[in-house]
């Protein structure tokens, strides 16, 4: 709980490294096709006049839910039940992770200039700032493909002996809602 979710059998084995193969039985069907956790919708208060509430965005988007129920699900309020993954800081790697965009690129540049091995994950193949001594990773511009690889990528970077992981903010559009949710919670662990 609170760490990067497993999306492949090897990730589960890593989480239970102290157990032998005989003690740990894993049903394996290949890596996760979606990559992030499921969508959670609360409908427990509809009898009180509260419509559907989107507690955790996932592969099934708010727009897809609206197509079925006829309206956009609401955001959680104070009475919404707590669910897995709803803590402010969650899904975080062990390596400190920060989000960046054009607005805070100078701060990232200053942090990179201090030295140390750092990873940068961005949409552009060419960095907006000097990154010649750091590792630059280009991520998918497709929200579903990005989500599918998100946790595996964070696990790979976590094993890369980096001092810091910098991830470019994703577009603020409905199709990126679930990815933005997971990245925001991962970065919140280090704020």
Plain-language structure description:
It is a single chain. With 191 residues, the chain is an alpha/beta fold. It has five helices and six strands, in the order αββαβαββαβα. It has helices at residues 9-15, 62-69, 105-113, 143-158, 177-188; strands at 40-42, 53-56, 97-100, 118-122, 135-138, 164-168. The strands form two sheets. Strands 3-6-4-5 form a four-stranded parallel beta sheet, with helices on both faces. Strands 1-2 form a two-stranded antiparallel ribbon. The protein starts with 8 loop residues before the first helix and ends with a helix. The relative contact order is 0.19. The mean pLDDT is 86.
Fraction of residues in β-strands: 5-15%
- Quick one: overall form? globular
Q: How many runs of DSSP E, i.e. beta strands?
A: 6
Ends distance: 19 Å
Question: Could you say which structural class the secondary elements and strand pairing correspond to?
Answer: alpha/beta
The amount of helix comes to 25-40%
H/E series, N to C?
HEEHEHEEHEH
Largest sheet: 4 strands, parallel
- Quote the average pLDDT: 86
Helix count equals 5
